[in-house]
Hints:
By secondary structure, the chain is mainly α. About 60% of the residues lie in helices and about 5% in strands. It has helices at about 1-5, 5-20, 60-95, 105-115, 115-130, 165-170, 175-190, 195-215, 220-260, 265, 270-280, 295-305; strands spanning about 30-35, 140-145, 150, 160-165.
Amino acid sequence: MDAARNPLKLQQGTFESLCMDMGVRDGHDVEIVSERTHAPTKLRKLGSLYGENSNENIKHSVRAQKVADIGREIIRAARRYVRGELHDAMGKARAKLGDVSGISDKDLMKKLNEDEDVEFWLNSLERIEGFTKDGIQDWQYILVGTPVPNAFVTEVLPQRFFVTTGLFDEFIENDDELALVLGHEISHLIMGHLSTGNTIELFLRGLEILVLMLDPTEGLLSLGIVGFLASSRDALVAMHSRSNEHEADELGCKLAAMACYDTTRGSEVFRKMHELDEKMGSSGNDLMSSHPPSKERYETLKERSKSENMTKHSHCHQLKGRVRRA
């Protein structure tokens, strides 16, 4: 009841649960870099996410700071991209309306917001910027000390980038590789893959429950139908996930290029993923695999990086004079 009344406590509990699911038992294994000064830089223990840290001069680890620095640039690129798409969608929606001279500004905006594409990009912008002024300043960049290689964002804990130390240990050798991974993850958020995937799975699970409720044979018929629906659900969710992964790879490459990272160099992270697949004996070709084969992703990204690179963005040329990224 207390958590239901206090959204911060609810988020705190979700955060702790997520950390423990990844094998974290000590809050010192979780490091937080935040744009806002009120957030702690480290968890003294699990359960103190919103506690004040008495040492304001604490130094972030090199890896945590790298996640924040690169994540920040990817977020800024994401905001530019989404705002650009929203602007284009608004223009197309207005053109569909024809003569709007007799419509008030308020009614015009209402009609524009009812357009399907405009609504999509407004929701996308909301997921990136949140609800506050300078919303991207609310993002937190979280390094989780666990050997499991992973990086992700989630709508359950908005405006947080999670990266594990295992990702660095296993795959990340330079900034460009990390930028491509983070670009991929934020692309899932932009395109609404997280909420769409959940909706599909919940609908299919609901269908299974409905069959069980309406079965006149007291479960005999349901056993076969529900078994079929369950396998079909897993296959459909996996197919949807694979499609999403390809889409996130494509947009992630674009965002990394917009943030002035070398996507050709960065795509090597997928080669290493493929090599690990081979080492572990995983072909990645089974129907239930939620990710496309790493070799296919690597080859596709390698080809795409030839045209989608920092060299096509004029603002990146201004960075030539600064020290080359590690």
